[in-house]
Design brief:
This protein is mainly α and 453 residues long. It has three domains: 137 residues, MgtE N-terminal fold (Alpha Horseshoe); 117 residues, Roll (CBS-domain); 171 residues, SLC41 divalent cation transporters, integral membrane domain (Tetracycline Repressor, domain 2, Orthogonal Bundle), CATH 1.10.357. Helices cover 68% and strands 6% of the residues. The strands form two sheets. The protein has a three-stranded mixed β-sheet with strand order 1-2-3. It is globular, with a radius of gyration of 29 Å.
């Protein structure tokens, strides 16, 4: 949130309007001046705020004046549009300024022919690094890692390492740890930069190395990497290949991006939206959302079929039609609370087979307690409204049944989906809504039919 505030401070609405006016009046020098004063994040924010024609015109003016880092900050839809306005030489010039993992990020969705053209424009060593990064599956540690790091043999002294750091021209700008490897390239451990600088030059580096540092395989899922950084408060973490050889390093700034992406993806999935379609066209957005709307329509029809079974009861007691949405709505809201907690706990690795039963029992108790409280409140309100204590008792009992069912469904549905290898964030709310609607209507109308007619 603070990052968003900083961007808004750097790029106020007035600046966006000035950029739009300069584009409309064909004042390219003013456009360059306005964008040149911004950070990479600021430039990306401006690009995302403009319409597609304005954005295309802006990219045409800036070309290589656009900060390459801005490309890594762009929404996927906007990045695709921006890259379409750049030729292979422009894209290669941007990739040349980026780390291999960031360069791979902007090249991964290019058509194969265009990607080869871009890579052909790069020096052989940079091209090899990017191709090696792209060879790893998307969403793995291999895609996240940087190959620019300080790697030294375990036979060196502290003095040799310091001299190497002073003389080498290909080292990263930010160094936190020195990684030590054996003759075969296998990771032996790391030395924090501060510890090395406090150690005398003749001391062998192996004498101060920490061998018990965490590392991740190159094929590890990025979500696992994010959990490791969070649980162990890491700033950097080495990545090793299948043979234990040091392949690269993941920095905390890349992991922060992963955490944001994972949280955003789960939020969108729970809303029935597969991707962030903020910048997509209306037709594409409608198509992306239509699938889950179709599923929701099917569940709504199922709930309507349940109501249809009690049409005779509703005709006789009109109050049932007035009150039954309350029962279903309360169940839906209570279930959403539970399923949100469950999906988050599963995503964070906090809900496991070891504590699943305890979690289900706790949520069932919460559902039962809330059901009892709201049963008393709603029952009293119905008695005061309609003057019928039996109707009040029926809605109270239905409220308890549905909130208890909502609590159980909100825990068991995501646990069950994960058990079968289905992402709980994608489907939980759809199944939950079906359960709370059907149980709510069935309990209320069924009890009303049994005790009031």
């Amino acid at each position: 949130m603070s990052g968003d505030a900083e961007i808004l401070d750097e790029v106020p609405p007035e600046l966006i309007r000035r950029v739009e006016a300069a584009l409309a009046e064909d004042r390219p020098e003013e456009v360059r001046s306005l964008l040149g004063e911004l950070s990479a994040s600021g430039q990306a924010f401006v690009l995302e705020q403009l319409t597609e024609p304005e954005r295309d015109k802006l990219v045409g003016i800036l070309k290589r004046d656009l900060d390459p880092e801005a490309l890594t900050e762009l929404d996927e839809e906007v990045l695709e549009d921006v890259l379409e306005q750049l030729d292979s030489k422009d894209i290669a010039a941007a990739a040349h300024e980026l780390e291999a993992d960031d360069a791979a990020q902007i090249l991964e969705d290019l058509p194969e022919d265009e990607r080869r053209e871009v890579l052909a424009e790069l020096p052989p060593d940079e091209r090899a690094d990017i191709e090696s990064t792209l060879a790893y599956p998307e969403g793995t540690a291999g895609r996240l890692m940087q190959r620019s790091l300080v790697k030294v043999p375990d036979g060196w002294t502290v003095g040799q390492v310091i001299d190497h750091c002073r003389e080498a021209t290909d080292l990263p700008d930010d160094v936190y740890d020195i990684f030590v490897v054996d003759a075969t390239g296998r990771l032996q451990g790391s030395v924090p930069l501060g510890r090395m600088l406090r150690t005398k030059r003749p001391v062998p580096i192996r004498d101060i190395v920490d061998p018990d540092i965490p590392s991740v395989p190159a094929l590890a899922e990025q979500a696992e990497v994010a959990h490791l950084f969070r649980d162990m408060n890491l700033v950097s973490c080495p990545v090793v290949d299948a043979g234990g050889r040091l392949a690269g390093v993941i920095m905390v700034d890349d992991v922060v991006d992963v955490i944001d992406e994972e949280a955003e993806a789960d939020l969108l999935k729970m809303g029935g939206v597969g991707i962030d379609d903020m910048h997509a066209s209306p037709v594409r957005t409608a198509r992306l959302r239509a699938l889950w709307l179709t599923v929701n329509l099917a569940t709504a029809v199922l709930a309507s079929l349940v109501i249809g079974q009690f049409e005779h009861s509703i005709e006789k007691i009109v109050a049932l039609a007035v009150l039954m949405p309350i029962v279903a709505s309360m169940g839906g809201n209570a279930g959403t609370q539970t399923v949100t907690v469950a999906v988050r706990a599963l995503a964070m690795g906090e809900l496991t087979a070891a504590n699943a039963l305890r979690f289900v029992a706790k949520e069932a108790a919460v559902g039962g307690l809330n059901g009892l409280v709201f049963a008393l409140l709603m029952g009293a309100a119905v008695v005061a409204w309609y003057g019928d204590w039996r109707l009040g008792a029926v809605i109270g009992a239905a409220m308890i049944c549905n909130l208890l069912a909502a609590a159980l469904a909100g825990t068991l549905i995501p646990l069950g989906l994960q058990k079968f290898g289905i992402d709980p964030a994608v489907s939980s709310t759809v199944f939950l809504t079906t359960v709370t609607d059907v149980i709510g209507f069935l309990a209320f109308l069924g009890l009303a039919t049994a005790f009031l007619l």
